[in-house]
Amino acid sequence: MSAARVLRLGPVSLRARPRALTVCGLLVAAGFMLGIVLLGTGTLPFSPGEVMGSLTGTGDNAMADRVILRLRLPRVLTAVFVGAGLGMAGAIFQSVSRNTLGSPDMIGFTTGAATGAITQIVLFDAGPLATALGAVLACIVTGAVVFLLSRKGRTTGGGRLVLVGMGVGAILTGINTVLLVAGHLDQAVSAQIWLAGSLNARTWSHAVPAGLGLLLLAPVALAYARRLDITEMGDDAASQLGVGVERLRLVMVVAAAGLTAIATAATGPIAFIALAAPQLARRLTGAPGVPLLSGAVMGAVLLLTADLISLRFPFSLNLPIGYTTGILGGGYLLWLLTQNRRV
Question: What digits encode the pLDDT tens for the residues 51-76?
Fold first, then answer.
C-alpha cells in the first residue's frame, strides 16, 4: 500500500499518493502513444510525425489532415471517452456490490441498453440517434429495476445486487433473442452489427456526446468518492461516521448507470473494460479506496489497446472491438476465478 502525502493550498488540502500519481501518469503517456499509433493506422498509413503535424496544425499533408482529423480522431476520442466511462462505472459497481464481478456487463446494465437499442432497430426501424437514445433510456430503467429488486429491508448492494443483476440480465437476453428472431432479416442484421460493439465509422456525433456525458457525470462520482471509500469499512462504520449509505449508493448507481448508458450508446456493448480496468488499476497503484480516476484512465488505455489489436488482427479480419474485448475478457475472467477463490 502506497503512503499518502497531504498537499495544502490555503484552505484546501489534497491527498496525493506518489505511486498512484506515477502509475496514472504512465498510463496517460501510454494512452497518448496508443492514440498516435491508432491515428496513423489504416488503409492510408501515416508516420507519427505526420500525425503530430496534423494535430498541431503544422503539417503540410492535406490528405493526412483530412483523414486524421475528420475520420480517425473521432474514433480515437470515442474510445478514450467510452473506456474511461466504463472504467469508472466498473469501479463504482464493484464497490457498491463488494464483488469483483460487479461490472455493468455482468449485472445486466449493458444487456438492458442492448434491449433498448434492439427494440428501436427491430420494431421501429430507427436511425442511429433514436437507437442511442433507446439504449440510454433502457439502461437507466434496467438500473432502477436492479437497484429496487436488490433492496432487502432498507439496504441494497452486496452480493444480492450481483445476483439480481445477473437474473435481470438473463431475462433481457431472452427478450433480445426473441426480438432478433421476430424482426425482418435486414433489421436483425443491423441489430447484430450494433450488438457486436464497434468503433468503426465513429464520427464527432458519437465522440461529442460521449465526452459531454463523461464531463457531466464524472465530477458527480468524484464528489462522492471519499464517502464511497468510507463505505468500504462497512455500512455500520460508515453510518457512525455520518455517511448516508443508502443515499450514497443511489447517487453512485445513478452516475454509474449514466456512464454505462452513454458509453454503450456510443459504441454498442463493450465487454471486459468495466470488469478489468478497476482491478488492474488497484493492483498497479496499490492505493486503498475506490479507483475511480485510475480505473477511468486504465479503461481508456485498455480500449485503445483492444482497438489496436482489432485493427492489426492476423489475416486482416478487422474484428469489431466488442468481439476483441470479449475474447480478452473471457481469458481475464478465467484467470480471475482461478486466482480468487472468494469470487
Answer: 999 999 888 889 999 999 999 999 99
Which residues are paired to 6 by β-bridges? 15
Element (H, E) at 268: none
Instruction: Give the whole-angstrom CA distance, residue 73 versus residue 35.
Output: 9
The predicted-structure confidence for 310-334, as pLDDT tens digits, reads as follows 888 765 666 788 878 887 777 777 7
Q: What is the pLDDT of residue 98?
A: 84
C-alpha cell belonging to residue 244: 448516508
Beta strands 12-16; 5-9: pairing state? antiparallel
Q: With the C-alpha atoms ordered 157, 161, 162, 163, is the resulting torsion angle positive or negative?
A: positive
Burial category of 160 from C-beta neighbours within 10 Å (exposed 0-12, middle 13-18, buried 19 and up): middle
pTM equals 0.90
| Amino acid in the structure at residue 146 | V
Of 319 and 93, the structure prediction assigns the larger pLDDT to 93
Helices (H), the chain: 18-39, 48-56, 62-66, 73-97, 109-124, 128-149, 159-182, 185-196, 204-223, 225-231, 235-240, 245-267, 273-285, 292-311, 321-339
Enumerate domains of the chain plus CATH numbers: 74-339 (1.10.3470.10)
Which of 228, 292, 253 minimizes the C-alpha distance to 140? 253
Residues 6+ apart with CB under 8 A from 97: 107, 157, 158, 159, 161, 162
Of 193, 163, 198, 191, nearest in space to 177 by CA: 191
Please give the Cα distance from 218 to 237 (Å, whole number): 26
Q: Which residues pair with 318 in a beta bridge?
A: none
How many residues are listed for the chain in this entry? 343
